Amino acid sequence: MQLNNLKNPQKKSKKRVGRGNGSGHGTYSGKGLKGQKSRSGFSLIPGFEGGQLRLIKKLSKLKGFKRHNKIINQHVTLEQLNLIPSNVAINEENLLKHGLIKSIKDPVKILNVGKLNSKKHISIKNISATAKKSIIDSGSTIQSD
């Protein structure tokens, strides 16, 4: 502890390098002998590999980005809707009950593959435009929420 630090005795004074061998940090000033790191003005760029081409420069550059909150619809076709009896309303709960979708949490979309054999009452938000047309042509009703 030095006497000039009376206000805060826990505070250590800054290491003064290159002030003679008596200080304990003379001659090479804690930088070792020769080499790039011992020179004045040395600054290390993150990722620097000693003159070798940096890894970040070797990697390919990808265009665009990935959406991490991407909405993935569960697809149900008109052919699959024929598996449900005509007296049962078509909604997420009944589609899950009949094993056509995996969970109620993910959104459901009806696609125009095949034809409806009987009239159905559909209450699902996402329906493709062509599927909507063929549902109405079959005499089925669509309840919009």
Give a quick summary of the entry.
The protein is an alpha/beta fold and 145 residues long. It is built from 4 helices and 5 strands; from the N terminus they run αβααβββαβ. It has a domain at 74-142: Ribosomal Protein L15, Chain: K, domain 2.
**Under CATH, the topology of the domain at 74-142 is which?**
Ribosomal Protein L15, Chain: K, domain 2
The largest β sheet comes out as:
3 strands, parallel
N- to C-terminal distance: 77 Å
Radius of gyration: 36 Å
Uncertain runs: none
Total strands = 5
Q: How do the SSEs run, as a string of H and E?
A: HEHHEEEHE
What is the helix fraction of residues, given as a range?
10-25%
CATH class category of the domain at 74-142: Alpha Beta
The amount of beta strand, in percent, is 5-15%
Write the CATH architecture name of the domain at 74-142: Ribosomal Protein L15, Chain: K, domain 2
Q: Total helix count?
A: 4
Q: Structural class, from helix and strand content?
A: alpha/beta
Averaged pLDDT: 89
> Strand order, biggest sheet?
1-2-4
What's the overall geometry?
Answer: rod-shaped
